[in-house]
Design goal:
Number of helices: 2
Strand order of the largest sheet: 1-7-8
Structural class: mainly beta
Number of domains: 2
Number of strands: 8
Radius of gyration: 19 Å
Strand content: 25-35%
Distance between the termini: 26 Å
Bound molecules: zinc ion
Length: 150
């Protein structure tokens, strides 16, 4: 893991065909492990992909799979082998911004932006990153990676 922004790193693999686009001696951006390539892709995509919307509650389908209770959108196909526990209207009542700790909550009609993949970002992150096609969040210049609740 690099300790400075310009620190060189090595990518060692015995299976170079897994990443044929990587070339020796070329500089590539480094993404902290908390960021996924889709975070960068969604911010670099045209802003027309984002739709301004007030977050509202939606139904949740609960299921059990392998002894673990899960949940998903009510209209999604159940995972193979899952036991359906039914739908509860309104249980999906909040969503986290993909880029910062902001929570969009149905109870306060939070305004956010959603992309066609169903990913939400808050208005702050839309203005600061999506509108500007700015991926500085990924190198730690401003946004804080989303935190996991205990
Ligand atoms: Zn945000």
């Amino acid at each position: 893991m690099p300790s400075m922004s310009a620190a060189p790193v090595g990518f060692l693999t015995h299976e170079a065909e897994y990443a044929p686009e990587l070339k020796a001696g070329v500089c590539y951006p480094w993404l902290d492990g908390q960021w996924k390539p889709y975070h960068v892709k969604m911010i670099l995509a045209p802003t027309e992909r984002w739709q301004r919307r007030d977050f509202s509650a939606s139904p949740v389908r609960y299921f059990v799979l392998g002894g673990v209770t899960g949940w998903q959108p009510a209209n999604a196909e159940l995972p193979r082998g899952a036991t359906d526990l039914g739908v509860r209207p309104g249980d999906w009542n909040h969503e986290r911004c993909e880029l910062c700790p902001e929570q969009l909550e149905a109870s306060r009609s939070s305004e956010g932006f959603i992309d066609p993949d169903g990913r939400w970002i808050c208005a702050h992150c839309y203005d600061n990153y999506a509108v500007r096609s700015d991926i500085s969040f990924a190198v730690g210049d401003d946004a804080t990676p989303r935190q996991q609740k205990p």
